[in-house]
Amino acid sequence: MLNQVQISVRALVEFVMKEGSIDARFSSKSTLVEGTKIHQKIQKTYQETDQKEVYLRTEIPFNGLVYVIDGRCDGLLFRDGGVMIDEIKSFSRSPDSFDEEGIPVHWAQAKMYAYIYAKDHGLDGITVQLTYVHTESESIRYLQKKFSFSELESFAFEMIEGYAPYANLKSELMRTRNDSCKALEFPFPDWRKGQRKFAGAVYKTIFDEKSLFAKAPTGIGKTISTLFPAVKAIGEGLVNKIFYLTAKTITRTTAEEAMAKMRSCGLRLTSLTITAKDKICFKDETICQKDYCEYANGYYDRVNEAILEILKNEEAITRQVVEEYARKFRVCPFEFSIDLAYEADVVIGDYNYIFDPRVSLKRLFEEQKKSTVLLIDEAHNLVDRGREMFSATLDKRTFLQLKKEFKDTDKHVYQTAHKINAWFIALRKNTQDQSEFVLDSLDSNLVELLEEFMEVAESCLQTGASQNLLDAYFEVKNFLKIGQLLDDSFVIYGEKMKNEVIIKLFCMNPAGHLKQMGKGYRSKVFFSATLSPLQYYQDILGGQEDDFLLSLPTPFQEEQFEVFIEPLSTRYRDREHTKERIASLVKSLLKDRPGNYLIFFPSYQYLRSVYELFEEDDDQIHLLVQSAGMKEEEREAFLEAFKPNQKETLLGFAVLGGIFSEGIDLIGDRLNGVVVVGVGLPQLCFERNLIKDYFNKQGKNGYDYAYIYPGMNKVLQAGGRLIRSEEDKGTIVLIDDRFLQNKYKQLLPPEWTGGLWGQERRPNPLKL
Q: In this structure, are residues 255 and 344 in contact, taking their beta carbons and an 8 Å threshold?
C-alpha cells in the first residue's frame, strides 16, 4: 500500500544514526559466516525458557503514513521476573576496545526491539543487553541498561521523525513511478522481428517467478526487450526493483539509453549506474581513509542529505550526476553510488554487485529480493567471471616481501610472514618434480597461520602501516573467505616458477555458488546473442530444470551475410606452414572487396606472425593492430579509424575474446567484413584440463565444457561485430578446417550457414 512504509528495525536505525567516516584500512567486522556461528554459540547458552530469533513487528502512524517496522531480535531472556532484549554483535576487534557505553547504533537497534515487545505486552519497562563477542578469542562483554516504556516510546518516535523526510519523499516517488509504469507504452512505433516474443517471455518469467535463459540475436533490441517488460511488472505490483547487470561499460550505456527512451514516453522512475571505485574516485590514489581523503572524512554525517537531494531532483543518476552531487556534498562518489543502489528503482552495474561474495550488496533483505528482478546481459561472460569470483590465490612472494619489510619494525608481522613463507618453501620441496600439482585438501596448518597473520596484521594496520601489508591483509582475507566455500566444485592446486610458489583455490564449476548468490530474487533473465548451446549455459550458470529456455532467430535477412569457410589448419603445430596462405587469402579478399575489415586471431603471437607478412608489402592497405593493455584513448583511436566510405582499405588485427571482439558497434560502412582465424579454443593448460577432467567425471563432455563451447563463443562474438542493423551488409570468412566438422558446424548461427551446408561444395566467388 502506498500509505504504508515498510522498513526493518536495523535499516531504520542505521539510516537515522549514520555518522562518522569511511575508513577502509581494514575491516573490523567479522564475516557473515563467523557472525552467524557466534550468534548461534551465544544462543545455545540461553536458558530453556529463553527465546532466540524472535520476530517482532509494529505499526506506527506518523504524518499521514503508517510505518510498518519489523525485525528479529537475537534473544528474549526472562530473568528475575523481568524481560531482557539481547542484541549480539561480533567483532574481530576486542570488545574491550569499544567505548564503555557501547556503540549508539547498536543500542538503538536493541531499544527498537524493546519498544515493540514492551508495547505488545503492556510492559512499563524492559532491560536491554548488548553482547559484544570477540571472534578470535570468543571473549564476551555484556552491557545492560533498563528503560521505561515512555523512554522507549519517545526514542521510537525520534527514529520515525528522523526517517520521515526520506519516507515522505519515497512514498511520493513510488506513487508517481507506479502510475507511469502502468501507463507506459512500448517506446518504439513497431516491434522488431522476434522482439515482442522476447519481451513477452521476460514478462511471463517475472509473473511466474522463474528464470529464463534466452539466446537473443544482435539486432533484436535485447536491452529494451528486457527492461520494458520488467518496468511494466513494476506497474503491475509484481516488482519493486530491477538490476541490469553486465560486464561491459558499453552495454551499461545502452541500458541508460533505453531508460532515457522510456522516460521520453512518460516513464518516471530513478535509475542509477554504478561505476567501479578505481574509475570514479576523485583522488590520485584510491585510499579510503579519513586522514587522506576529504570525501571519506565525515562521509556518514553528510550522505543522508545528499541522498535526499539527489532523489528529489534526479531520475537518471549516471556517473556524471553521481560525481556532481558527490562533489557538492563532499561524499565519496563510489560509496555514495552504493548507498543509492538501495534506493534506486533500476540499478545498472557489473555482475559482481549481486554475484561476488566479496562485493555484493549485502543490505538487500530477503523481502526486498522477492520483489527484485535480475536482468543479466551478455550472460556468456558470467561463466569465467563466476569462476574468478569464487576463486582465490596466495603466493610465496607476498610473505617474503613482508618478512623483509617488517624484520626491524614489527616482530609479530615478521614472524607470521616468516612462518607462512616457510610453509611455501616446504610445499616447494615436497613437490620437487612437479611444476603444477593438485592438493587433496586445504592444509589446516596453513589456515591457522593465515588466521594468525590476519590478527597481527589488523593490529599493525590500526597504526597506519604499509600498502603492502594492507594488500596482503585483503588477499588473505579473501583466501580464507573462499576457503569456507570449498566443495567438490573446487580443486586446490599449486604452481612453481623458479623460486615462486602459488596456491589457488580454483572454482571449476561456478553453478552452485552463482545459484546461491542469486537465491531469493523473484526472477533472473540470462540473455546474450551467443548463449549457445542453451543447455550448457543453463547448467553452468546455476539454472534449474523448470527454467524457461528461448532461442530466437535473427531479425536480419540471409542476403545481408556472405559466409565463407577456408579449411586450412590453424592448429598450433601447423601455423607456420599455413600463415602465408592465410595472408594471401585475406589480401585476395581485400583486393576483390575493398573496405573496412577486422581479422581476429586466437593469440597475440599468432596475430603478429601474420601481421608481419602484411607489413612487408607495399599494398595500399591501412593496418591497425591491437596491443596488450591498450589504454582507453588508444582503443578509441583504433575504433575511430573505421570511418565509412574510405578510399583506402583498412584492416584491423585483433584478438578473439579481446576488447574489440565484443560490445562494439561499427554500423553501416564502418565495417564491411570480418575474418576469424581458428575456432577460438582456449590454450591447452593445466587449469583448463582440470575443468575438462571435472566435467568428464560429472558425466558430461569435459572437452566441450572446457574448450569448445568457450572457444566457439568467441568466434560468434567476433563474427557478430559485422551485422548490427537492418541496413548492414558484409562478408564473414571463417578460416579453419574444423568449421566443417559437425561438432563446430552445429554451433554456428543458422543465418551464417543458410545455403552453405546444403551444397556438395562451398560457394567460391572469392576464389578462396
A: no
Which H helix or E strand runs over 449?
helix 444-461
Measured in degrees and rounded to the nearest 5, phi and psi for residue 83 equal -120, 140
Per DSSP, the three-state class of 413 is: helix
Residue 207 has pLDDT above 70, yes or no: yes
Q: Of 735, 604, 600, whose CA–CA distance to 661 is shortest?
A: 600
Q: How far apart are CA 290 and CA 105, in angstroms?
A: 20
Taking 70 as the threshold, does the pLDDT of residue 79 lie above it?
Answer: yes
DSSP 8-state code for residue 460: H
pTM for the model stands at 0.90
CB 67 within 8 A of CB 167: yes
Grid cell digits, residue 562 = 556472405
What are the angstrom distances between the C-alpha of 217 and each of 555, 597, 635, 679, 712?
Answer: 8, 21, 25, 20, 15
Q: How far apart are CA 6 and CA 618, in angstroms?
A: 72
pLDDT of residue 4: 86
CA distance 282 to 286: 8
Phi, psi of 667 (to 5 degrees): -80, 150
**150, 123 in Cβ contact below 8 A?**
no
The strand pair at 241-245 and 346-349 is best described as: parallel
Find out whether 62 and 160 touch, Cβ atoms under 8 Å: yes
Residue 388 in contact with residue 351, Cβ under 8 Å?
no
Q: What pLDDT, on the 0 to 100 scale, is given for residue 492?
A: 98
Domains of the chain (ranges plus CATH)?
Answer: 4-165 (3.90.320.10), 187-389+511-551 (3.40.50.300), 393-507 (1.10.275), 558-753 (3.40.50.300)
Any idea how long the chain is?
768
Query: Over the stretch 416-456, which tens digit does the pLDDT of each residue have?
Result: 999 999 999 999 999 888 899 999 999 999 999 999 999 89
Nearby residues of 521 by Cβ (< 8 Å), 6 or more positions away: 369, 370, 372, 373, 374
Which amino acid is located at 590 in the chain?
A: L
> Can you tell me the distance from the alpha carbon of 99 to that of 62, in angstroms, rounded to the nearest whole number?
34
CB atoms under 10 Å from CB of 741, counted, come to 12
* pLDDT tens digits for range 153-184: 999 999 999 999 999 999 999 999 999 999 99
